[in-house]
Design brief:
Strand content: under 5%
Largest sheet: none
Structural class: mainly alpha
Order of helices and strands: HHHHHHHHHH
């Protein structure tokens, strides 16, 4: 495996993770949240993830596993890997307390409050949200890294989709921290650092899984990645998109994301 391929995949993961800092900056530099844009963007990200998971990643996983294990065993292993990915991210969601869930909707307008009584609770919420984002981003980092390592043309749109998905997470971290401390630097720094879990996830996964990297391992990881991304789309992105804007905006974004992903796959066949 060439060093340039590893560095490229890691760079994609770093880009996706640090998008939380973009969300933090947006919440601190603007006076009003563009909820319609966020709604369409999150729907777009979900469309990219769902389409590429079922059309491309699941198929790649099945091809790799069937070639190594045979038609029946390979198909079962692919489906098992897919639902393992869903189970993994669902368990992570259950471990994170709902009150600190990083996908709870936050807007810039929340920072207008002046009440002193809630500052301690807000700081706690900001810190725990940063931790929650980190926990969520760990498997996403491995997913982005694996996709970029296996197929750079596939890794780029996945990294962009996950980066879009990370923007509101940065807002979720920065808003309560700024409200509690009054420090834009501290709020931005924490939102930026919370995204570093993605490249860390990629690095840990590479170090521990590299020696086992073969077609079977790659197939299982790809199947799990497909499950993780479908779960993220259905459980986080689409509900958040609907909360930020009108129902139809999220669907328009979803369809646009699928169309762009389909077109890019056809162009690079």
């Amino acid at each position: 495996m060439e060093l340039s391929s590893v560095l490229f995949a890691f760079a994609l993961t770093l880009f996706a993770g640090l998008a939380t800092g973009i969300g933090g900056a947006l919440s601190l530099l603007t006076k009003k949240t563009n909820t319609k844009f966020l709604s369409i963007s999150l729907g777009f990200s979900a469309g990219v993830m769902i389409y590429v998971s079922f059309v491309e990643i699941f198929g790649k996983a099945k091809d790799a596993l069937v070639s190594e294990l045979g038609a029946t065993s390979g198909a079962w292993a692919t489906v098992g890997g897919f639902f393992f990915g869903i189970l993994l991210i669902a368990i992570i969601d259950r471990v994170v307390p709902s009150s600190e869930n990083p996908h709870e909707i936050h807007t810039v307008e929340e920072m207008d409050g002046k009440s002193e009584s809630h500052k301690a609770n807000l700081m706690r919420m900001g810190l725990f949200t940063a931790l929650a984002v980190g926990i969520h981003n760990f498997p996403e980092g491995l997913a982005t890294f694996t996709a970029g390592l296996s197929d750079p043309q596939l890794g780029i749109p996945i990294a962009i989709a996950i980066a879009i998905h990370n923007v509101p997470e940065g807002i979720a971290v920065a808003v309560p921290v700024f409200y509690a401390t009054g420090s834009k630097k501290k709020a931005f720094r924490l939102s930026l650092l919370s995204g570093l879990a993605e490249p860390i996830g990629a690095l840990v996964g590479y170090v521990f899984l590299f020696r086992f990297f073969n077609d079977i391992m790659l197939g299982l990881i790809f199947a799990s990645v497909a499950g993780i991304m479908v779960y993220i789309s259905l459980d986080e992105l689409l509900p958040s998109a609907r909360e930020y804007g009108e129902h139809h905006l999220s669907i328009y974004g979803l369809v646009a994301g699928m169309a762009v992903m389909a077109t890019s796959l056809l162009l690079f066949m």
